[in-house]
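Below is a filled-in request sheet from our internal design queue. Each sheet records the structural input a requester submitted and the sequence that came back. We keep these sheets so that new team members can see what a complete request looks like end to end.

REQUESTER: design group, bay 2
PRIORITY: normal
MODE: inverse folding
CHAIN LENGTH: 198
BACKBONE (tokenized):
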């Protein structure tokens, strides 16, 4: 910027340094920017005092408390969900649309471990009379679907599926009881009578 390019009213803002013939004008910063900047500084001072000097909330502790509260709420929900309703199961098991929904959910969530038509793969065969963690009845299978078995690689599906979806999956699994497979996983667990919907 050359001297003859500067407006007369701006000449008093001209800084006295010169870089390769380039001069600068010392325009004041916008008021909104200054207010934001100083407001941030003041907020930072109070924030630091509250969380580092005064007895403010420890963020890690608060996070831990929130996690514990969430787990308690989730556990209470799972406990409530785990109460098996035999009439609701029978209603789902006798409704083709619900069994069809159960099949779709099974193929989406369960087939990767239990194979097509529940013949068994990583997870056990769900069509024979042998059970590892249940007794082959809807009442004993239902809570296991909800709570799962993390040590055995079975997710707690109660955290992902709602009640109708769980009953639908259960109805589909029960509909496969006694199904013959050309290739199926060897029996695992204790033998129980095959369950039939009455």
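RETURNED SEQUENCE:
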């Amino acid at each position: 910027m050359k001297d003859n390019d500067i407006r007369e009213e701006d000449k008093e803002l001209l800084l006295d340094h010169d870089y390769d013939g380039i001069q600068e004008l010392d325009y004041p910063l916008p008021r909104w920017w200054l207010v934001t900047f100083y407001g941030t500084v003041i907020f930072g001072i109070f924030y630091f005092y509250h969380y580092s000097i005064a007895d403010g909330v420890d963020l890690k502790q608060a996070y831990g408390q929130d996690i514990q509260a969430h787990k308690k709420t989730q556990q209470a929900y799972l406990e409530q969900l785990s109460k098996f309703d035999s009439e609701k199961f029978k209603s789902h098991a006798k409704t083709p649309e619900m069994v069809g929904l159960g099949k779709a959910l099974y193929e989406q969530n369960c087939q990767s471990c239990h194979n097509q038509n529940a013949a068994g793969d990583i997870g056990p065969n769900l069509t024979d009379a042998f059970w590892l963690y249940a007794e082959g009845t809807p009442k004993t299978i239902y809570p296991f679907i909800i709570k799962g078995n993390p040590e055995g690689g079975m997710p707690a599906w109660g955290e992902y599926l709602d009640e109708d979806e769980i009953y639908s999956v259960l109805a589909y699994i029960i509909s496969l009881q006694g199904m013959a497979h050309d290739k199926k996983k060897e029996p695992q667990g204790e033998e129980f009578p095959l369950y039939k919907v009455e």
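SHEET NOTES:
- Helices lie at 31-53, 59-81, 86-93, 96-109, 111-114, 138-147, 163-175.
- Strands lie at 130-131, 190-191.
FILED BY: M.R.
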